[in-house]
Amino acid sequence: MATDCEAWLNANPVEAEDLSDSFISGEEDNGGTVTSTKNINNEINGNWISSSSNSIHEARLKAKAKRRLRKNSSRDSGRGDSLSDNGDPARGSTAAPTSPKSKLLDRKSRLGKGRGLPKKGGAGGKGVWGRSGEVYELEAVDVKDPNYDEAQENCFYETVVPPLDEGDFEKTVTPIVQEYFEHGDTNEVAELLGELNLGPMRSGVPSLAVSLALEAKASHRELTSRLLADLCGPVLTRSDVESSFDKLLRELPDLVLDTPGAPQLVGQFIARAVRDQILSKSYIDGYKGRVDCQHARAALDRAAVLLKMSMGGLRIDNLWGSGGGQRPVTQLIKEMNLLLKEYLLSGDSKEAERCLRELEVPHFHHEFVYEAIVTVLESKGEKTFKMVLQLLKFLWVSSVITVDQMRRGYERIYMDITEINIDVPRAYFILEQFVDKSFSAGVIDEKLRDLCPCRGRKRFVSEGDGGRLKLESY
């Protein structure tokens, strides 16, 4: 090959200008005819071709166009404004050529190679673990892995919950019981306790629940008795319940300091547990002659008495009563009327307040106001008038009856006064006096006083009605 090149050069001498690999002149770029007395090289991009001068000229034009396209694509590949084969700007790019954001977000190759597709098939980039929607399967264990351990193939992993100690037990179980007093769902409590590793502290659940119920309301004690009955079996055993009540009897001297009636209440819990069959009937008999503490003896005596009374017809399953929201309306109205009658006989406002609180129906106190005013309208003396007004003022000052409940009670009287007047002819007159006294005592405001209905005055013949009497009721 070298011998052929040397022979051709000797036959066709070429000057240095014709051996240059630079771009052609402007005349060639404009498509004009170039005349030269020099010989034309037959080498194009290092390849020897034997052809006419016209074919060599066309080859040079194509080589020049390719070099220009390669140079532009390499320079502008990061800006998104590369040229097409015709030299026009490529479409599909809206970012500014000099925008740094376009360079950061561009996922195409910077080398000017390839088909312009994203790197790694779109699975690359910072914080990217693979293509979207790609699912990775479990890798098979490689025996040739240097970290391979044959003993790990037979291992089973399981979550282990450590057992609770005495300090963590109260912090964990106390919120569960207090929340149960709000929703009353025993199944939720059983699920929460099942997730804990109670261990030897399992017998402490009934004693903790009872100790919290001693300081709560009667409805909460009823919920506690239901909770113990529902937990016995799924979570607790009979031996756990017996151990818990044994602990309560030992701690009674300390419980009496916070709750003076703790012995009677614990005795009622024991009687209810025996009735619910979570304690054996021989539990109380097992303590006979072996109790030195007077408080424990009082609790056991209370339980024994209640069990004997149950044989005579007493329902121990309704020992604590039902909550205010669970009672029927007729029963609540009956108890409120009994409360008013007892107050009119004793005149003890504090006792009436305590009884009203024990009903646990703050949303139904408007009924108490209504019944109290009806009692005043149906009475015949001033004593009932003054005592009921004094009671309403006492309950108003102590915030037992709220503004809304007091207003609703008076408004109900205003609406029913027409029917009440049928049985009590002087109802309008007595109501006006009672409303004025209530306003003077600060029980109601001026707006509520002005809403009090007034009785229509009878018109006589002398007032120019043509000698006719009105037939409407007044």
Topology (SSEs and partners):
Blueprint (H helix, E strand, L loop, with lengths): L1 H10 L14 H4 L13 E2 L2 E2 L4 H24 L23 H6 L60 H18 L2 H9 L9 H11 L3 H14 L6 H13 L1 H7 L3 H14 L18 H18 L17 H18 L2 H10 L6 H14 L3 H16 L5 H21 L3 H15 L4 H5 L24
Antiparallel strand pairs: 1-2
Helix pairs in contact: 5-6, 5-7, 6-8, 7-8, 7-9, 11-12, 13-14, 13-15, 15-16, 15-17, 15-18
Protein architecture, described:
With 474 residues, the protein is mainly α. It has helices at residues 2-11, 26-29, 53-76, 100-105, 166-183, 186-194, 204-214, 218-231, 238-250, 252-258, 262-275, 294-311, 329-346, 349-358, 365-378, 382-397, 403-423, 427-441, 446-450; strands at 43-44, 47-48. The model is unreliable at 14-41, 78-85 and 90-95 (pLDDT under 50).
> What's the end-to-end separation, in Å?
138 Å
Structural class label = mainly alpha
What is the helix fraction of residues, given as a range?
40-55%
Please summarize the sheet with the most strands.
2 strands, antiparallel
Radius of gyration: 50 Å
What amount of the residues lies in strands? under 5%
Shape: flat
Which parts are unreliable, with pLDDT below 50 for 5 consecutive residues or more?
Answer: 14-41, 78-85, 90-95
Strand order of the largest sheet: 1-2
Mean pLDDT: 77
Order of helices and strands: HHEEHHHHHHHHHHHHHHHHH
Count of beta strands = 2
Number of helices: 19
